[in-house]
Amino acid sequence: MKKIVLCCLAAIAAGVAGTASAQFRTPESAIKYRQSVMTVQGRAFYVSIGGMVNGRAPFDAKVAAESAELVRMTAQLPWTAFGPGTDKGAPTDAKPAIWSEPAKFKELADKMQLEVAKLAAAAKTGSLDNLKAAYGPARDACKACHDAFTSQ
Amino acid sequence: MKKIVLCCLAAIAAGVAGTASAQFRTPESAIKYRQSVMTVQGRAFYVSIGGMVNGRAPFDAKVAAESAELVRMTAQLPWTAFGPGTDKGAPTDAKPAIWSEPAKFKELADKMQLEVAKLAAAAKTGSLDNLKAAYGPARDACKACHDAFTSQ
């Protein structure tokens, strides 16, 4: 993990990465970043929140709210990592349609962000019923984008 | 990325992952998760916030606050992924000392979480000076733990 620190410091020293939406140094680093976002988000959504919603774990309003907020925040992150040329460079399940049908990709990505924002708001109410009501639409919005734009 | 969804659904179906701190199915999945957390956190910290602190990017109080909050939240996540047996199973820079010196590991991990919580609080004030003041101690706390417990 020191490599990550060193890599970031190297990127900074090179002056190539300066803002929140700064370009990635290589397609590989972009692919690694967006996959990392999905891994972190997937666990918060399917394991932490999903566990409570589906009765596999006791409801903990604080954990639910933090997990849903994490899902909301991570939902904003991967898009800058789908820049031109990042369709290859490392193993990726991203379909070419992401770059050939950008309007549809954006539509589904926006829908997902809208639904997980609703999920985060629902979680903040501290009500399991509200969380359950928002979970399904958020899950469906995630799935719709993955079904359309990722291969197995 | 569909694999992530399917993997999570499979874990859920198997009933092995139910809470926020649920065990991971395999050492490999734990290693992948903690590395993903570090990748997401590293970009928010070194690229987004670091860019503003070091003058490579214009200060945006909203982005700084969201990035610092993301760092604070992700700082809570990786620890359950350092369970017994996760010292191998996939390429990892984690040193054996993580498991042989758990008290020291916890001490540095706690210190890091404390400093990034201060960073998030500083970012919420909307002041670049406050952000700068909290950034150095947070960076040093990250580095201290990586220096002690990760190899290159």
Termini separation of chain A: 28 Å
Radius of gyration of chain A: 17 Å
Helix content of chain A: 55-70%
Morphology of chain A: elongated
Oligomeric category: homodimer
Largest interface: A-B, 56 and 56 residues
Structural class of chain A: mainly alpha
Return residue spans of chain A where pLDDT drops below 50 for at least 5 consecutive residues. Answer: 6-21
Number of helices of chain A: 6
Mean pLDDT across residues of chain A: 89
How many runs of DSSP E, i.e. beta strands of chain A? Answer: 0
Main β-sheet of chain A, in a few words? none
Portion in strands of chain A: under 5%
Question: What is the element string of chain A, with H for helices and E for strands?
Answer: HHHHHH
Characterise the protein shown here.
Chain A has 152 residues and is mainly α. Chain A contains 6 helices and no strands. The first copy, chain A, has helices spanning 2-13, 27-53, 61-74, 97-100, 102-124, 128-149. In chain A, helix 5 (102-124) packs antiparallel against helix 6. The first copy, chain A, is elongated and about 45 Å long. The relative contact order of chain A is 0.14. Chains A and B meet through helix 1, helix 2, helix 3 and helix 6 of A and helix 1, helix 2, helix 3 and helix 6 of B.
